[in-house]
Amino acid sequence: MKALVERLRAEITFLRDQVRISDRSKDRSGKVLPDRTERANENEVDLQNQLLDLQENYSALSQRHAKLISEITKARDAETEPFSSPRDLTSSSVEALARSNSFAEAVEQVVLGKFADCWTEPLSGRLP
User: Fold this and answer.
1) What is the mean pLDDT of the chain?
2) Which residues of 24-55 are buried (b: 16+ CB within 10 A; e: fewer)?
3) What is the DSSP secondary-structure string of 22-75?
4) How many CA atoms are closer than 13 Å to the CA of 88, on its beta-carbon side?
5) Burial (0-12, 13-18, 19+ Cβ within 10 Å), 15
6) Quick one: which of 97, 11, 94 has its CA closest to 48?
7) d(Cα 13, Cα 6) in Å, to the nearest integer?
8) Which of 36-50, 64-78, 84-98 has the highest mean pLDDT?
9) Are 75 and 47 in contact (CB under 8 A)?
10) What is the model's pLDDT at position 96?
11) What is the pTM of this model?
C-alpha cells in the first residue's frame, strides 16, 4: 500500500513538472498547446483523487488492525489467568469457547467488511 502511494506521488510530481515545462515552452514560443496541458491536468487530478482514496483506505485499515490487535491481546490475557478449582476450569473453558467463536465472527466481519468496502467505493469523482 505504501509503495502504491509513493508511486502515485511520483506520478503527480512528474505531471507537475511536465506542466511547468509546457508553460516555459509556451512562454518562449508564444504558442499554446491546450490539449496536452488539459490532459496533463486531468491526469494529475485523477491521480490526486486516487491518492486520497488510498490514504483513506489505508487509514481505515490501520484502525481496524489496531482494534484487532487489541482484541487479540485481551483474549490472550484472559486465557492466561490462573484457575482456582476444576469447576472454574470447566466454566472458563465454555466461556473461552464462546469468546473464541465471537472473536472469529468479529474477525470475519472486519475482513469481509474491508474487502466489500474496497470493491464498492469509487476511486475517482472527488476533487481535492
Assistant:
1) 76
2) eeeeeeeeeeeeeeeebeebbbbbbbbbbbbe
3) HHHHHHHH----HHHHHHHHHHHHHHHHHHHHHHHHHHHHHHHHHHHHHHHHHH
4) 6
5) buried
6) 11
7) 11
8) 64-78
9) no
10) 82
11) 0.39
Reading the block at residue 50, the C-alpha cell is 486516487
For residue 68, what is its C-alpha cell? 484487532
Cα 40 to Cα 13, 18, 22, 52, distances in angstroms: 11, 8, 10, 18
More confident residue, 93 or 47: 47
| Grid cell at residue 64 | 481496524
Q: What is the residue whose three cell numbers read 474496497?
A: 118
92: cell is: 472458563
Among the listed ranges 81-85, 91-95, 112-116, which one has the minimum average pLDDT value?
Answer: 81-85
Distance CA 11, CA 63 (A): 28
Closest by CA position to 48, among listed 36, 40, 60 = 40
When pLDDT is averaged across residues 99-122 and rounded to a whole number, the result is 73
